[in-house]
Amino acid sequence: MDLTATGRGLAPDTTKGAALATAPITVRPWLPAAILFVASLTFAIGSTWDIQWHSDVGPDTFFTLPHLFIYASAATAGFTGLTVILITSAAGRAGRRVDGELGGPGIHVFGRTFTAPLGYMVAALGAASFLLYGLWDLWWHSLYGFDAIIDSPPHIGLFLSSTVISVGTVIVFAAARAHTWGRLGALFALAHLVTNSTVTALAVQRLSNGTVRWTVAVTAFMVILMLVAGAGFSRWGATVTAVFGSATQAVFWWFAPWAARAYADFVGLPMREHIRGIPSTPALIPFVLIPVGIVVDLLLRRGAGDAGRLARLLPAVAGAVGGAIIAATSPVQSVLIYEARFHLSALGDGHFGLASVIVATTIAAAVLGALGGFLGWRFGGMLRLTAPSQEALA
Fold first, then answer.
1. Among 79, 75, 31, which Cα is nearest to 176's?
2. What is the mean pLDDT of residues 214-233?
């Protein structure tokens, strides 16, 4: 059995004779990567649809069409990761070289029982975690019958598991950065993490006090982390990631209200009274993704080629500036989307004015953004290292 990938795959073990190459199995790196890409899109569709359902229709049960999309995405990612791991493990036991473009460097699991490409191993672990949280969600529904809120413990766990799957998807595409589809796929997967992280940030909304809106600050941290990782991975990567994220936001801005209403009509359920049709998930994504991406790229390009201490601090500086922009413009976004008014009851607890809330949240977002920039730049460098060297490909 000869496992190859675009001509540079698992090289045949010539010591075992030509008989091993009589029945070749060809695995092209873009094929399983494309399946993971589809799984990410499926989750994005299902989660956006489900959240909009909670907003425009009401509580739901476990067995709904949006939930089918959500769990199908995890199943697809899990089976894809498992298949690639089994194939590469069989090739490894036969003494064949695993192509680094097929999901990144191989990692031995349980000794040498399995040889798992890094990206697919991470995606498979995320899918396994998703299954466990899915069982918890089913038990949760059996206790309470339906979900009244979106940020229930099993839901947050499901979103975190999906984040792990998306991280694996980023690694899979980054390992093929020698190809255009690999570079663009990695940045699109980062954009998916940007849009997905805004929902995960809801886990801290109950921590908000009278001065800091922690959901905004944590959203800034997650967004900056992904944008700077894109910049560290590819030239103008923050801008491209931001463009992909904004494009996703625009598509789901139309899709979410339409899907909720269409499905409600299909199952014969009424919509809530006086709904405004505001897309719930897209409204959580900062409108300033593209400006922030451009600012991050411009700041980081100023330090390109400079090994000085200031250059090493630039990712944190760029992250702080980007986080501050996201937090400072958040009240404006609320006005544009919700036609909100700046009342103390909405932004504070009555002891702090509007200016205090905005300043405190902006400072918190800048601090977390600096941390996100520091970590994101290093994650971007790690993504570059997942690709095999040209010597290895020769």
1. 31
2. 93
C-alpha torsion 192→379→239→204, nearest 10: 50
Place of tokens 């191989």: 106
Beta-bridge partners for 114: 109
Q: Which residues pair with 60 in a beta bridge?
A: 147
User: Whose structure tokens read 């090994």?
Assistant: 307
Q: Where are the beta strands (DSSP E) in the chain?
A: 2-4, 24-26, 106-109, 114-117
pLDDT tens profile 133-186:
878 777 776 666 665 566 667 777 788 888 899 999 999 999 999 899 999 999
The pTM score is 0.82
> What is the C-alpha separation between 120 and 116, in angstroms, rounded?
7
Q: Taking Cα atoms as reference points, which of 5, 6, 8, 16 lies closest to residue 94?
A: 16
Task: Name the DSSP letter for residue 342.
Answer: -
For residue 349, what are the contacts with CB-CB under 8 A and spacing of at least 6? 209, 210
Q: Where are the beta strands (DSSP E) in 266-360?
A: none
